[in-house]
Design goal:
Elements (H helix, E strand, L loop, with lengths): L21 H19 L4 E4 L7 E5 L4 E4 L2 H12 L12
Antiparallel strand pairs: 1-2, 2-3
Length: about 90
């Protein structure tokens, strides 16, 4: 149970599969946020994971925000907040 918000702790994400300790798991969550920031660059949407609440915080430049449980929900929320289709596998135009 999360002491901050009362939500049950979520199971680890598949990207944390090699994390042996809670410290390693937290480090992997922060690394995932760095990758997401680079993928979302130019969309007007950013993400944050302070390590205290379950899920990923998603914010737009207009101030709209949401908390999503996983990456599948994140891509849907990015489309909502940016107002345009988003494909995480598509390279940004240079």
């Amino acid at each position: 149970m999360c002491a901050s918000c009362g939500f049950p702790a979520i199971p680890g994400h598949w990207t944390e599969a090699g994390a042996a300790t809670p410290h390693d798991r937290l480090r992997e969550r922060f690394r995932r946020m760095q990758i997401l920031q680079s993928v979302l660059r130019g969309t007007g949407v950013s993400t944050h994971d302070g390590g205290l609440i379950p899920g990923i915080q998603v914010m737009s430049l207009s101030g709209a925000q949401a908390i999503v449980p996983d990456l599948d929900a994140l891509w849907v929320e990015v489309e909502k907040l940016s107002g345009r289709p988003f494909d995480p596998l598509e390279l940004p135009a240079s």
